[in-house]
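Example record used in the benchmark description.
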Amino acid sequence: MAYGSDVQRITRALNWIGSSALGLGIAIVVWALWWTRGVDDFRTAVIVAALGFGLPSLVALTLAWLLDPLTEPEPPGTAKSAVSGTALPTRRPASGWPAVAQYIAAVIAVGLAAVLRDWLQPILGEMAPFATFYLAIVVAGWMGGFGPSALATALSLAIVSRPLWPGGADLPPYQLGNVAALGVFAAIALAIGGITATMRATAAAADRMSAETKARNAALQSAESELRHERDRIRVTLESIGDAVITTDVDGVVTFLNPAAERLTGWRSHDARGVLLEKVMELVDEKSGVRLAPLLDINAQARKPYTTHHAVLIDRKGSSHIIDESGAPIIDDQGAHIGHVVVFRDTTEARHTQAALLESEARFRTTADTAPVLIWMANKTKACDYVNRQWLEFTGRTLEQELGDGWADGVHPEDLDRCLASYAGAFDARRQFQLEYRLRRFDGEYRWVIDSGVPRFAPDGEFVGYIGACIDVTDQKKARHLVAESAR
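Model output (structure tokens):
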């Protein structure tokens, strides 16, 4: 249930932020109706409301809508091991820090980003005012989740927006580019924060499932070792493990059920003794519903184990359980076949968790496709393995054309070597990077884009590649050029 509650908190925060931004935008428009003078002032106020507040509101509310189906609680019992009954981790913490320390770390990260931006001022000038703050937002989001990420976004906006506006109450038309830049920055930051927090919650569910699988495999290996080397202790061992175990004689008549098998089949051990296994374990095919024939006799002759995945067990009360089943003949010290052992486990909850992971991945791709930026992902070989729909619409090419090194075909020839060298250097150093280069649009025009990339790591810390986003800054560059020309 921790996974669902984590996503629920993210959704509530996105709804609150989106509603607040929408309310501010509406307030600006209402204010403009009563206090502005002339059509030009009113049009400027409407554009400010749409770009500065409407765009972040749209992204926040869209992310909340996409994440809403993931807020349903997980089936009961997913927080405990089916093998040992011990509690498993219910949340994947980004660090061992308390919540207050995570927010303080977000403030410190933004402060360091501001200092770094001031230090780079002689190099960057007025270009890419948000460059260093993206790193602060990513760090805050990874360390503390969506809350610290949202705080870092707000502080970054406050720091960067202050020098963009001169004194006075009027809003000159040439500053609308600044409004657009702030709105796009807020939208990208919210998208990164929401996606990162959701992926962390998904990774927590994956960690729990992985821990459960490891525990079950360890228990099964222990049982198999006891069956081979300490047959005199088999009954005690079988009764202590979480997997269901049934033993039969050579004819397939049940001789023993452990407690887990009793719970799954609905048969008490003393009632099942002397009953054929096919009656105690009524199995049907998961897809077709056709009753499965017993395999014991066939495998007894061959003396080989067998495995059945995702069969459905119908218990004595008529309830269904999706199980993984394995069985093998029991051979005594003289090599004679004396019976069978069947080991199975209920995988219904694991299947639900797997389905949730697949749905989460699909939701991520849907979220990425709706984000108002060009998003790309690369694997650890530097090859591009994903671009979102906005990228494909911008370039006018197919996904197959952009994968691998195909994306580089759209980079302007004069920028290509510099772009690839910077990308490879950052990739090898596992550090965040930001590039500015010209990318060919679907109509053949080369547009200036700012490409920001950050490394991705698996839950165990293994480097798995990069994720990045590009924004088209051609219009802003043209606007700054016109302002500079008019000032001369």
